[in-house]
Write a sequence for this structure.
């Protein structure tokens, strides 16, 4: 089967629906295993930090969820652009499916950061460039979802929200580079850093496992959600009738 | 075990963070499955009220 | 031009426009986006006079003086070029110690920075306690000083 044929087959809603369904366990099971291993490693096996003691163990949630918040936004904006340009409904379905997942993990990143900042920095919240741009990321997700729900017509909701997703993507590099471009209370990147990660393997490996696990979790959740979004977008297609009567 | 739960005096910051993560994981799984289930139910109801073969395909 | 090509160009135009506008805005507000001034900026008068602002630097070794019986503490912040003396009354974060990066919020009064909030900044490096100890010993041995 040529790449094109394969692509067209994947882009047809019934195939996409079925493949997404088949992929769920292939993402969900590794996600559960990786997150369990990563968090166990981070909470139990990793040594404490010489300065921060055990408080730094929040990093095993904070960094993976912040990573996922940015990954989801980039995925959402890319899917929205593809949906706008090529008028592919499946791309819009993926963008819509991604937003709530990204929003929830951005919220987790902010909350865990707050719980970490209070004992270490001495404050729950402050308006430095990293914290502020991360909060803007959360509001962009909320704005995207609110805009979608303001339209009764799905096609219009898809297009209008896609423009907002595109406009907001400018914030993604700002979140990442905020700690490099400006003086901030938040420290620089530990993992993505010139000269390699600033962590010994005993601390780093659980962090990477956890981050990979979060990524797999996103993939599994997106598969479930995108199936729902595909169903909403299909009206009377014959495959839908078979599906509806079949189960 | 007690030392582990104590988290070097940072228990009241570390454990709420992990607890919140469990809530976020749980919400995501619940909400995603709810979306899929409701979409299927709605599709079923929609199809039951329209005659089969009637063209209402939203594809353009 | 096909409709698809037109839509592609529209998307590119949106991205370019928003990107450019943001870049200009960031450039214009660059100073306000920084969280703190360092002691050199304070010394050269770049920090706002008569208004509260944040100053960030390292707590100079041996500079911390606590007033017995109160929460008042005095210390000196340095960026290894200039220094700012700070006075503060209140609880300090767990990471506050000599040699630690600190950000204080307050205003300059007669050359002393009177702080109403002190936050600790930590770097992106994480190290197990034994390794940190070993590194410190090695350093001490290399310079011939004992801590």
């Amino acid at each position: 089967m040529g790449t094109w044929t394969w692509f067209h087959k994947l882009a047809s809603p019934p195939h996409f629906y079925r493949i997404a369904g088949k992929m769920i366990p292939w993402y969900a099971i590794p996600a559960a295993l990786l997150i369990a291993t990563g968090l166990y490693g981070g909470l139990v096996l990793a040594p404490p930090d010489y300065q921060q003691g055990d408080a730094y163990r929040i990093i095993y949630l904070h960094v993976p969820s912040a990573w996922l918040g940015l990954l989801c936004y980039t995925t959402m904006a890319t899917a929205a652009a593809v949906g706008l340009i090529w008028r592919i409904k499946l791309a819009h379905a993926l963008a819509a499916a991604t937003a709530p997942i990204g929003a929830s993990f951005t919220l987790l990143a902010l909350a865990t950061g707050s719980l970490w900042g209070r004992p270490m920095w001495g404050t729950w919240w402050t308006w430095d460039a990293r914290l502020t741009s991360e909060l803007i990321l959360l509001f962009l997700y909320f704005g995207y979802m609110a805009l979608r729900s303001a339209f009764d017509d799905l096609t219009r909701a898809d297009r209008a929200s896609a423009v907002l997703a595109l406009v907001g993507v400018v914030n993604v590099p700002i979140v990442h580079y905020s700690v490099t471009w400006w003086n901030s209370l938040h420290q620089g990147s530990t993992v993505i850093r010139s000269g390699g990660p600033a962590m010994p393997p005993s601390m780093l490996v659980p962090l990477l496992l956890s981050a990979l696990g979060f990524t797999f979790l996103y993939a599994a959740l997106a598969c479930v959600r995108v199936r729902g979004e595909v169903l909403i977008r299909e009206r009377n297609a014959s495959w839908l009738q078979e599906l509806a009567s079949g189960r | 075990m007690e030392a582990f739960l104590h988290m070097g005096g940072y228990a009241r910051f570390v454990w709420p963070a992990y607890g919140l993560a469990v809530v976020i994981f749980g919400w995501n799984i619940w909400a995603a499955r709810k979306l899929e289930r409701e979409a299927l139910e709605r599709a079923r109801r929609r199809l039951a009220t329209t005659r089969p073969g009637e063209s209402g395909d939203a594809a353009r | 031009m096909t409709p698809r090509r037109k839509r592609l160009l529209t998307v590119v135009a949106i991205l370019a426009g928003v990107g450019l506008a943001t870049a200009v805005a960031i450039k214009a507000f660059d100073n306000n986006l920084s969280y703190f001034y360092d002691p050199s900026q304070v010394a050269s008068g770049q920090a706002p006079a008569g208004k509260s602002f944040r100053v960030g630097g390292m707590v100079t070794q041996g500079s911390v003086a606590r007033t017995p019986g109160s929460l008042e503490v005095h210390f000196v912040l340095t960026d290894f070029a200039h220094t700012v003396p700070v006075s503060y009354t209140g609880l300090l974060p767990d990471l506050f110690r000599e040699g630690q990066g600190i950000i204080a919020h307050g205003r300059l009064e007669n050359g002393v920075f009177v702080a109403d909030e002190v936050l600790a900044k930590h770097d992106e490096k994480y190290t197990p306690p034994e390794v940190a100890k070993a590194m410190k010993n090695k350093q001490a041995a290399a310079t011939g000083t004992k801590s």
